[in-house]
UniProtKB/TrEMBL annotation:
The keyword Oxidoreductase applies. Belongs to the aldo/keto reductase family. Residues 24-262 form the NADP-dependent oxidoreductase domain. Keywords: NADP, Oxidoreductase. This is Glyoxal reductase. It comes from Lysinibacillus contaminans.
Amino acid sequence: MGSVTLNNGLEMPLVGYGVFRVPDGEDLAEAVKMAIATGYRSIDTAQIYRNEEGVGRGIRAAIAEGLVTREELFVTSKVWNDGLSYEETLAAYDSSLEKLGLDYLDLYLIHWPGIDTNHVEAYKALEQIYQDGRVRSIGVSNFHVHHLENLLAQTTVVPAVNQIEFHPHLTQEEVRAYCREHGIQVEAWSPLMNGALLEEELIQQLAVKYDKTPAQIVLRYDVQHNVVTIPKTMTPSRMKENLSIFDFVLTDEEMAQLDAMNDGLRCGPDPEKFNFK
């Protein structure tokens, strides 16, 4: 499985395991352990998912059974926007560590920029955690160019990652170009549009051509754009499929055809309108 090098030299797997909308509990813990056994080394959760405890149990079980060491894993969580003051953000990080049962995270993100929230103060708290050596990298999620410009003008640590909604219907070229220019790694959430992309005719045609699933075509599209991708599945066979995307290459023409599907269609909230209230 490939990886990318973040702007602080840290290696991050190109394909991770997402747990958005997965209820907390033993099924989740078992799925996380299974994902690690299958080969995933990156696990992505968030405060608002309310499943950090199950994720942590799965991670710790995998470590206890010798499937992996903590150092081999890349664990991400995110602070929600009901706690964006400096002190509340510090407390949220401690809470996430406690729920996960871990000593540190590899990546900690501000989940959304908000409309009337002070994400700069929250990011300064992330900078403090990073400078204290308690997190290996920090970043943001769902930030558009003007959010990033505002952040970079008032802080000192350039975000390592900007996790955004990204897929052929929403290519976010302006955001990705800005991130490339400033050394910020783009990561895709909901890369399969909650499964809606799997019915697209072009993607199905490419799946037949390469003897792959439609999901594998989309995930391959992500990594060929150098975008980290974190699909969600609870099915062991699909866990394996989602990692099996490094034995074929889409042509430049096919990548352009997939890019041409861009029409601004979202399956999640618009960061310009979403205010968490």
